[in-house]
Amino acid sequence: MSTIVQEMGAMAASSVREILDSGQGSPAAPNPQLWSILSDGGWGSISSDLENGVELRDILEVARVSGRYPYSTPIVSTLLAGRWFELDDDQLESGIVPAVRRGAQVVAPYYSDGVAVVDGLGGIIAASPSAAEPFSLLSPLAVLPSSTTVLSEAHLGELRAAFLAVAVGCADAVIDASIAWSTTREQFGQPIKGFQAVRHHLANAHIAREQAWTAAIAAAHEPARSAAWARQGFALARTSIELGIQVHGGVGFTWEVGLHHYLNHIIELQSVLGDDQ
C-alpha cells in the first residue's frame, strides 16, 4: 500500500469536506439529508468501482475529513464495505454500518431520515428528534431477525486504520477550534494565545495529532500490527482532544461549545472495535 494519497482519494476528500462544511446540520442536531447528499453524489460507492483504483490510503483521507464533522453518516464504513464485498448500488446508497456488540445486545449507531435505528435484542427503536433534544422521543417499532457478517482479521485491520483516521479528523477540528478560541479569548488584557502554558498545550496537541495520523497510516501499511498501532493512535488522538478542551477552560466541557462530541465520537469508534478500555 502506498503511503501517499492518490488523485481520486484527494478529490473525494475535498468533495466530501465541501459537502460536510456547507452547513448541513450540526453534531447535536444532524441533518437527515446529509447521507443522501453524499450517496447521490456517488461518493459512497467509489471504492467498489475497480476502474477508480481507490486504495485504503485514499479511504483514510476521506475518513480523516469525515472526523471533522461527527455527524452519524456511514461514509467510512460504506467505503470499506464496498472495497471488501460485492454489493449492489442500492445497498451502498442505503449505507453500511458496523454493529457494536455488548453481551446479548447489539447497537448500530446511525441517524437516517429523522430516525435513529437501534438494534438491541432484535428490536428496532425509532427516535423522533426535536431541535432542542434530538433523541428525546423513543418508541419500539418491530423485531427483526438477526443478520450478521463477521469480518475477517484483514478487514478488522483496515477498519482500525480507517476509524483511527476518523479520530485524527476529530483532533483536527478541536485543534482548529482551540487556536481560534485562544486568539479571541482574553485574560489579563491580552489574548490567551500569548501565554506560554496555552502555547505548550496547543503545541502538544498538534504533536499528538500528527503522531496519531502516522499511526493510522502505519496501521494500514502493517495489517499484522494494526491493533497495536490503533491502540497507540487512539490514545494520542484522545490526548490531543483533551488538551484542546483544556485550552478552552471550563467552557470546554459544556454542551454549548460542543467539543465533547469529538471525544465521545472517539469513544464510540473504539467501542465498535472492541477497544474501549
Automatic annotation (TrEMBL):
Protein name, entry field: Acyl-CoA dehydrogenase/oxidase C-terminal domain-containing protein
Classification lineage: Bacteria, Bacillati, Actinomycetota, Actinomycetes, Micrococcales
GO molecular function: acyl-CoA dehydrogenase activity
Location of the Acyl-CoA dehydrogenase/oxidase C-terminal domain: 154-265
Keywords tagged on the record: FAD, Flavoprotein, Oxidoreductase
Origin superkingdom: Bacteria
Residue spans crossing the bilayer: none
Signal peptide extent: none
